[in-house]
Structure formats: structure tokens, C-alpha cells
Amino acid sequence: MKSWRLLAPYLLLLPAFIVLAAVVVVPLLLSLYSSFTPFRLTRPDSIWTFIGLRNYERLFTDWEFWVAFGRTVLLLTVALNLEMVLGLGLAVLVEKATRGQRLLRTIMMFPMMFSPVLVGFQFKFMFNDNIGLINNALQGLGLTDRAIPWLIDGTLAFIAILTAEIWSSTAVFAIFILAGLMAMPKEPVEAARVDGCTPWQTFRYVTWPYLMPFAFIAMTIRSLDIARAYDIVKIMTDGGPAKRTEILWTLIARTGYSDARMGLANAMAYIAILLSIVFTAMFFRQLAKARAQIAAEW
Amino acid sequence: MNRLLFSASAGALAMALGAAPALAQELPGSFDGVTIDAKLIGGQQYEALYARIAEWEEATGAKVNVISKKNHFELDKEIKSDIATGSIGWCVGSNHSSFAPQYPGIYTDLVALLPQSEIDAFVPANISASTLDGRLVMLPRAQFDVSALYYQKSLYEDDEKKAEFKEKYGYDLVPPDTWQEVADQAAFFANPPDFYGTQYAGKEEAINGRFYEMLVAEGGEYLDADGRPAFNSEAGQRALQWFVDLYEAKAVPAGTTNYLWDDLGQGFASGTVAINLDWPGWAGFFNDPQSSKVAGDVGVKVQPKGSSGKRTGWSGHHGFSVTESCADKEAAASLVWWLTNEDSQKLEAAAGPLPTRTAVWEWVVAEAEGDAYRQEVLTAFQQAAEHAFPVPQTASWIEISNAVYPELQAAILGDKSAEQALNDAAEKATEILEDAGEL
Amino acid sequence: MDRNAAHRMKRGLFKATHLILLFLAMAIICLPGLWIVLSSLRPTVEIMAKPPVWIPREISLDAYVAMFSGVGQGGIPVIEYFRNSLVISVTSTVIALAVGMAGGYAFARYRFAFKSSIFLGFMLTRTVPGIALSLPLFFVYARLGIIDTHFGLILAYVALNVPFTIWLIDGFFRQVPKDLAEAAQIDGCTRWQAFWQVEFPLARPGIASAGIFAFLISWNEFALASQLTRSTSSKTLPVGLLDYTAEFTIDWRGMCALAVVMIIPALTLTFIVQKHLVSGLTSGAVKG
């Protein structure tokens, strides 16, 4: 009985260990090794040439790589924060609705059901400067008489990609925050109102701290899943034009498959993984803090 | 007898046997009990042909096992993954002339497996574009691509416009025959944001290919005789400047540097572009009232010349290859032949794509009798095909493209001068070739 | 105007603003999606028109008819793709839930060495971008001979979803009071029985919410599927979308029609379980 209690958790976790080892850890070790080789897909023998840190050295001095790196961080930060704000707004709106909740919640999750490939195409067509819906609508309403080059200008293209990304993923935040709103005890809000707090103060000091853990969970999940954005960016601009929208994943995919330089691509991927780990660890700490705060207050 | 020997023999013996012309006389032959694993390009445009595989199976007694069907770029990824992991256990693969040089050595020489008379029945230019280092690595199917000029006919029939143009440029307004005329007319017709003179593919291999053909038309070369990048010559600058000038004159849509083929086709079909250099695959789409606003108003003409007097003509074609590691090359070659024989090509060409067999060209032209548009299209593309040339035959072509196109875009968007962009691009291309051991 | 009326007006105004904002938000969410649905019903000449045609003049099911009309007549093997997608998504979701329940239960109910490191380790496996994983994974799969099989993709998706299901379900089990299960055990249930009869029913909403996330992720996944599937015997719907693209052309209307076919099961499922979803996430998140 005693030994069972000691072994039980490990036995229960065993399936997860096996699956993750087979599908993630072993392949990752392989790709870690290949990042120390000049491995080219079209020359399988090259995997046996060991070149140490050369790929990494090359990347550390590669300005274009770091620009892409910086842009990825920027995209992540802006996208995640905007999604959180918009998701919060959406959740509040839905929560306040007195009728049709079931339908509203389903609609809210509607964008999550589209394959990112399709989202990419749809937004590419919408932002097309000549026949796209957005420019046609703006011109039709008389707001502009120019063809706005949405996917060409670096800033505008960033906005266009951000729009597609936000459209497809805000639902994740909304659903978590909605869950938080619905679970929230009513008494503290009532108490705050009785004490004469304005709605904004009530929200800021009572509701929001309670919602924080939900927001951070959503944030963590999204930052884990952010590579989803790859499909969208790949189709909308593929990093172009003139590398104005290059992000890590488009760069890695092109280097690895199209250029067939898998060794170099894997070195880039490892730097990208470090980035994700930093983001994830950060959110985990925030989450723990927010949870501790709630636990203390309620 | 040959069959027995064949299946038992290694590659070297197969080559020796294949050299005997008696071998493959009775195509498609008989291959009872043989199974051929095949990787075929997928997508509606390409799949009608595969219905004919059943007939081949019936005629030969062999089975075909389609182990993969994907679009072209995905298939390229897959074949590279196969090479990398040493898992080329299959026999027949779809191939493309622009991608073929990347897979050195995995495909066998078909000359050894098929009678010369069958190979001679193809258009010679297509055969030479399928031959790498003296080996015929693929047999072309009826999916040949070269670009010709589509234009809106009505624009050239307006007397007022004609007079205005003549006064401004000093020559008559007729469908252009040189790229300089295209530039003039594009600037003349353009009325942004409602209407544009022309457009071009602006990213990935597409812009590099367009630049490459313009470079050739300007008298330059992409790689010199030693295989060194030579596109940063004066001809190269003139070629790139053509794209830059159009962009600056706002004669092309501002988004053109993000356009790929689908955007271009949809753009011309929307009736907002006057002149459009494009592929034969769109001919039907442009003239179909269900899909295109310019239906009935589409003219097609052979592609214009550059300042050297040479016409552009970047081309490519799809085909089928047999792997070197295939256990039954003879059966595989028979399948490849079957999918590219006259009946197969007629089947594909009847739906619009261009054939690669001389006899089928004659057949489609005869079939088009009474359909003026189709005839115009075929005449234009038949001329276009005469000037066609494939991409430089280096294994690093796609990689070079990926390095060069952002530089071309930078020049078009005004981030860099044409000269600067080309020098930077040449430097990167040289580095790639050195890394690959080709220089 | 007396105070009451002013108050009523203020409330009415507030309500109206709320309705307008809600409507706007829903419109923004729905429009791109509805545009896709609409595009599948209209001739291409209207979709890509300039000036745009806002109100469809012609509606037809041509794209759907073409899709099902067989390979070679503009069709794609949609039935096979659909079957593959369904088999792979459902199986992998069920397995991911089972593994997640085991793991979640372990984290919620036991103390053991390296607990939090193991937990973080599980989460971090999700940070690996698919693109870095796809080739080495292909390498391993090629050696094992499970390329282009349902099994291969199911395995990959289980791995993709397990960290997430463990996390959500763990939080949920924590919220079920330990006393309940212990009471049941005192009443003569085995631990196994106690789990199924007491803890599992209470945790059901959490499991439902983890399930729908896992299902949606598997249903739409593209990067790994495009690498690990090859023929119609295992290609899934997102990979099938690319059948509508040729080297130079793209059939956007056809893609949209296929997208609609893809959305219907996802939408139905979400509608059915969304009630559990919200309450499920609730407890899962806070107590985790």
C-alpha cells in the first residue's frame, strides 16, 4: 500500500511521459544535434560533419536574423496584450447580455474554428490594395482616394497581420475571462458599490484582480500556441516585401525547407525556443503571483 | 526474359540492358504482379490525368500505388525530407523543371529506358529543359508554362485614346511588342487607384523569375559561363530599373510586391489592369463570364522583347521521373511514358494546359477551329514557346531566389538603388554557391 | 424631469450602448467568417470584383457540387479527408483526455518529488515551434514506418494536447474536495470506484472544456499534418485545402466551400459543449 502511494503518481504520469518523449524530446535531441552540423536536406551525408557552434556564431552576427527576432517579440507582445484587452471587452459584453448567451458564446468562438491557412488567405484578399474589401470599402465611403498598400508598407503590413492574428485568437482570451467573470463571487462587487466606488474603481480594484489569473492562463496558452501565427504570416506576406515583415518562423521555414539548410534552421529554432521559454516562464510567475493574491484576499 | 533479368539486376546492369534499343519496343509492355509506388502532384488541375492510370494497370497487369498527392511546393518539401532521411523507396515521382536540379542523382536517365523515337516526339526545347548533366531526368507532361501577354482589347480600339497616345509618345497605340512600349502604355493607361497599366508578381521565386527573363531580354545572363552570379551587370540594372520605374510611376498596383500568381490572375479578371504578362493556365478563366469581368475583351499576344531584341520567356514544365533506386525501372518508365503519351497529353491539353508533344500541338490547334479566342491563345503561346528558356540549371536556384528576391523588392520599393540591391544580391548568391561547393 | 425618469433614461441609454457594442463586436467576429461562407456560394467574378459587389446577385451551390463530383471533374476526395480528420481528431482528443486525466489526477492528488519541475517541463514541450519539430519527427516516423498513417498523426496530436489537458484537468480535480472521495472510500468503495462515481462526474465540465480545445486544435492543425500525411489514406481537411491551389492558380471559391464543410462539425460540437466549457474553465483556472 505504501509503495503504491509512492509509485502511483509516476505510473499515472507514465503515458504522458512516453508520448511526450517519443514525439517531442527525441526529435528535439535530433534537431539539437543537427544544429551543430551543416546539414542540408538534399545532401544527407552532411549530417555527419560536425562544425560545433558555427551555425550559432553565424546567427549571432546576422543582423537580419536579429531584426526578425525583435519583430517577433514585438508582434507577440502587441498581439497578446491587445488580445487580452479586446478579449476582456468582449467577455464583459457577453456576460452582461441577458438573453441568447448560448448563441453569443458560440459565435464568440467562431474564429477559432477556421484553419489558420484559411484565415491567412481571407485576410490577404481583404487587405489586397487593388481589389481588397478594406480598400474598396474605404474608397466607397469616400474616406480615401488612394489605394492604401496594406501589405507593402512595413507598419501597415504589421497592422494587417496583427488584425488577422487578433481576429483569429481573441476568442481564447474572451472565453477564459468570461469563465472568470461568471465564477466571480458577487459580494465584493456589491460591497464596493455600497462603499461608493465608481464603476471604474470597482472594476480596477475588485473585478480585475480576480480576473488576472484567467487572463494569464489564456496568455500562457496563447504564448505556447503562438507559432500558429506562422501559417497566417506565411500566406499573407511570407515575411516580405524586402523582409519588412520577416518573423522567426517564416525565416526558419524558408531556410530549412526551401533552402534545404536544416542545420542552420535548427540553430535558429533553438534560439526561438529559448524565446518561448522566457515568455512562458514569465507568464507562469505572473500567474502564480495573481493566484496568491486572490487566495489572500478571498 | 528481359523482364526477369531486369527485376533481378542492379542499377548498372539495368543501364547496360537499357542501352539496347530492342528493350522497350512494345510499350506499354507487360508487368504482371509488379507494384509501382508513385508520388504525384495533387490538385484539381492535375488529377484528371490520373484516371488513365487504371487503363495502364489493365494493359500491363501492374498495380500503381499512389503514396502521395500534394501540391507542388509541399511535394518538394516531401522529396527533400525523403532524400534527407534516405527513404526513397518509391519509383515514380512528379517533377518540375525548376525544381529538378535540386535533387541531384535521385532520378534515373530515361533515355536508357525508352525508345528514341518516343523521346523525339516531344518538342525538342522541352526535352533539353528536362535534361540535366546529359541525363533525361523527366518526361514532360502536357503542363508546359511560359508567359504571354494578355490585354484588354477595347483599350486599343478607342480612337480618342489612340490620338492622345500618339501625340504623347509619337507612335501608334497597338498591343505592345517591346517592354519599353509596355512601360509607356502602362503609364498611359494607369489611373490609380481605379485602374492600373500592368502588374507583376512581386515575391519569392516569381519576382526572381520575372527579373531573370527580363535580364535575358536585356542581353544579360544570370550566371556566367563559370557559374558565377553575373546579374549585377548593366543589363541587370536596366532589367531591374524597368520594374522600379513602373512602381514609381504608380502604373502598377501598390501591392504588387506582395502579389503571387493568384493575386495577379484575380486582378486582371477584375478588369482593373490593362496589360498582364501571365501563364496559359489563366486563359480559360479570363474569358469565362462566371469568373472574369473582362470576358470577351481579352486579347493575347506573344510576350514582348527587351532592348537586346530577345524576348522574355522564363518557362517551366511538369513531368514525371523514375528514381534511381526503383526496383522495376522498366515498368516505372512505361508508366511515365503512358502518362505523357499522345492520348494523355490530348486529355490534359483539351482542358487548357499546353502540350509538350509536337503532334499534340498540331492536334490542339486543329481542335480550336471555330473558336477565335482559343485560336488566338494557342497561336500566342505557340510563338511564346519558341522563345522559352528554363531557369539556370543549378541545384541552388531556389536558394538563390530566396536570397535575391528581398533585394529586388528593396529596389522596387525604393529602399535601395537598383545597383546597390543587385550588388548585395550577387554577393549573397555567390556565398550560397560557395557554401554549396558549386564555385 | 424627476429623478426616476432620469435614472430610467440613463439605464436605457446604457442598455442601448451595450446592445450596439455587442452587435458591433459580433459583427466584426462574424464578418470575415461569413464572407468565407458567402464566397463559397458566389461566382468568382463577384468575389473579386472592383467595384465590389456587396450584395450577392447570384447564389449557387456549384462549388459544393464540384467538390463532391469526383477527382478529375473539379472534385477532391473530400469524403476521405473528412473521415481521416474525424478519426484522427476524435481519437487523439479521447486519448489526450485519458492521458490528461491520469496526469491531472496525479498532480492534483499526490505529492511527489520534482512535482513542479515535471509540471513546468510538460508545459515547455508546447513551446517548441512545429517547424522545428517537423523534420526530426518525420525522421523518427520514417524509421518507425508510421508516415502517412492515422496512428502517426494521432500520436503527434496527443503529444500536442497532453500538456494542456493535464493542466486544465489538474485544476479541476483540485477543486473537487478530497473529503468526498475519502468518504466514498470509507463507505467501502475502492479508490477506482470512488474516482469514477464521485470525482469524475464532478470534474466532467472541466474535461469537456479541455476536450473541445484539444479537438479544435487537432481539427485545424496544418504544419505537422502537411509533413506527416501524404496520400488520401491519411490526409486531413486542412491539408486538403491546398488541393485547390495549383502552381499558378487558386480556386478560392472551392477553398471556401471546403472551409464551410470543415466548420460545421466544429461549430456543432462547440454549441453542444459550450455550457460546460465556461463552467469548466472557471474552476480549472482559479484553483490550478
Can you summarize this structure?
The complex is a heterotrimer of chains A (298), B (439) and C (288). Chain A has one domain: MetI-like (MetI-like fold, Orthogonal Bundle), CATH 1.10.3720.
Please tag this protein with its features.
heterotrimer, A: 298 residues, 12 helices, 74% helix, B: 439 residues, alpha+beta, D-Maltodextrin-Binding Protein, domain 2, 2 domains, 5-stranded mixed beta sheet, 44% helix
How does this model look, in words?
The complex is a heterotrimer of chains A (298), B (439) and C (288). Chain A is an all-alpha fold. Chain A has a single domain (35-297), classed as MetI-like (MetI-like fold, Orthogonal Bundle). Chain A has helices at residues 2-34, 54-60, 63-96, 101-108, 116-126, 133-140, 154-183, 187-194, 199-225, 229-236, 248-258, 262-297. In chain A, helix 5 (116-126) crosses helix 7 (154-183) and helix 7 (154-183) packs across helix 9 (199-225). Chain A is globular. Chain A starts with a helix and ends with a helix. Chain B has 2 domains: 2-145 and 316-368, 3-Layer(aba) Sandwich (D-Maltodextrin-Binding Protein, domain 2), CATH 3.40.190; 148-312 and 394-435, D-Maltodextrin-Binding Protein, domain 2 (3-Layer(aba) Sandwich), CATH 3.40.190. Chain B has helices spanning 2-8, 11-18, 44-47, 53-60, 72-85, 116-120, 124-129, 159-169, 179-189, 204-217, 234-248, 261-269, 283-286, 329-339, 342-349, 358-367, 372-386, 397-412, 418-435; strands at residues 35-41, 63-70, 92-96, 131-132, 135-136, 139-146, 148-152, 275-278, 298-301, 315-322. In chain B, the strands form 3 sheets. A 5-stranded mixed sheet of chain B has the order 2-1-3-10-6. In chain B, strands 8-7-9 form a 3-stranded antiparallel sheet. In chain B, a hairpin with a 2-residue loop joins strand 4 and strand 5 (135-136). In chain B, helix 15 crosses helix 16 (358-367) and helix 18 (397-412) packs antiparallel against helix 19. The termini of chain B are far apart. Chain C is mostly helical and 288 residues long. Helix content of chain C is 75%, strand content 0%. The relative contact order of chain C is 0.13. The chains are: A mainly alpha (298), B alpha+beta (439), C mainly alpha (288). Chain A binds chain B through residues 39-42, 44, 47, 124, 128-131, 135, 139, 145-152, 157, 237-238, 240-243, 254, 257-262, and chain B through 76-77, 80-81, 83-86, 102-104, 192-193, 196, 202-204, 253-255, 257-258, 263, 266-267, 270, 272, 395, 398-399, 402, 405-407, 409-410, 412-413, 415, 436.
